[in-house]
Design a protein that fits this description.
β3, α4 and β4 form a beta-alpha-beta unit. It is built from 4 helices and 4 strands; from the N terminus they run αβαβαβαβ. It is of the alpha/beta class. Helices cover 34% and strands 17% of the residues. The two termini are 18 Å apart.
């Protein structure tokens, strides 16, 4: 898939970042997965769900979809992480990146967090925005 500026898509931050062609590809893939939902497209991939806000639908939807596609999913729990002791978000993300996850699914109350993390991480890891503040929630 590509961004609206015809660059390869590394992060999913906002729907506006997607080209019309990418959206069409996404819908085609969704139809294929609907017909045969349990594929191993993400076999040997690992995803970490990093939610700083409560969410039932988004959290469960991402986790279930990733598992159905063959990925292993780890849940980051803020209350038992070093962020509860004052570790910065960037340090936490750097730690998770060093663990070699393939993607981080991020939900945060700050409108710009996903964008900032994508810029900070660059090509090291994919950032998927699962809702930031009131601005972006590309999976809805």
């Amino acid at each position: 898939m590509q961004t609206s500026s015809s660059q390869p898509l590394r992060h999913l931050l906002a729907v506006d970042d997607l080209s019309t062609e990418s959206l069409q590809t996404l819908f085609t893939l969704a139809d294929q997965y609907k017909d045969t939902p349990f594929q191993n497209t993400l076999k040997n991939k690992s995803i970490c769900s990093v939610f700083f806000e409560p969410s039932t639908r988004t959290f469960c939807s991402f986790s279930l979809a990733a598992q159905r596609l063959g990925a292993s999913v780890v849940t980051f729990t803020e209350s038992v992480s070093s962020t509860s002791k004052g570790e910065s978000l960037i340090d936490t993300i750097d730690t998770l990146t060093a663990m070699q996850f393939d993607a981080l699914v991020i939900r945060h109350q700050n409108d710009t967090t996903a964008d900032q993390l994508a810029e900070h991480c660059g090509d090291k890891i994919a950032i998927i925005n699962a809702g930031t503040g009131i601005c972006h929630h590309p999976s809805q």
